[in-house]
Amino acid sequence: MKITGNKLYQRVAASITEAIEAGRWSPGSRLPGERDLAEEYKVSRPTIREAMIALEMKGWIEARHGSGLYVTRRDHGSGERADALNFDVGAFDLTEARILFEGEAVALAAVSITDEQIEELEAILHDMGADDSDEPAVMDADHRFHLAIANATGNAAIRSVVEYLWDLRTKSPLAANMFARAKRGGITPRVEEHRPILDSLKARDPHAARSAMRRHLRGVVDDLLEATELEAMERARSEIDARRNSVAQRLKIGSA
Fold it and tell me: How many angstroms separate the CA atoms of 101 and 253, rounded?
């Protein structure tokens, strides 16, 4: 199926809303699985995940008791049609851009970083691991760590780009929603994921630094995929628990 539009996840979401409006999937019907949709639209599963979250945020679909995604209704009105699905950049696209830009930024930093800047990064990592339960402090340390590396390049334009990408984590509704889901899944920055980056910078090794940064950020993608899958699993688990409790209550009545 050919997809047209702006961002890839938006084009997929728009195509699905058109199919819903055309009656392919009626209200209350279950959408095909993520893998099937990825094959149909010739896109990756992360792209399908972003499209589904965008549609869920707009009320076109809903996750039902962990059994899948279901169409809610077709009468959204012109203000809520496919052209209203612009949620800007998603977390997967954002992280892919970070892999590209921050991978090269850290390689440049490796050949220009000062001893004082390395000491600053050490202090930030200490802050990150000081109290794992203090999520705001951990997230702040993660932010400062990556911006400090961008600053160590000595290039103001690179720092501005990296800072802009970080700002999108909260300013893009779709990205913010997806990272919030990851937080609910207990996924937060970890010192051990950042330590190889700092070790490579200490060694002034641009190739190792680039590899360490890309490996870290690919781990972020994996965490995001796991977090959204865990949400579905939690919904399924809640449904099973509810059914178990219902059966237990019925058995009590029968034995009374």
Answer: 63
For residues 182 and 2, what is the distance between their CA atoms, to the nearest angstrom? 31
Is the pTM higher than 0.85? The answer reads: no
List b or e across 187-210, with b for residues whose CB sees 16 or more CB atoms inside 10 angstroms: bbbbbebbebbbebbeeebbebbb
Question: Are 137 and 93 contacting, i.e. CB atoms less than 8 angstroms apart?
Answer: no
What are φ and ψ of residue 145, in 5° steps? -60, -50
Label residues 132-154 b or e (16+ Cβ within 10 Å = b). Answer: eeeeeebbebbbbbbebbbbbbe
Put residue 68 in one of left, alpha, beta given phi > 0 → left and psi -120 to 50 → alpha. left
User: What residue has token string 């339960």?
Assistant: 133
pLDDT in tens, 182-211: 777 667 778 899 999 999 999 999 999 999
- The three-state secondary structure class of 142 is helix
As a whole number of angstroms, the distance between CA 106 and CA 98 comes to: 11
CB atoms within 10 A of CB 130: 12
Average the pLDDT over each of 1-10, 74-83, 133-142 and give the range with the smallest value: 74-83
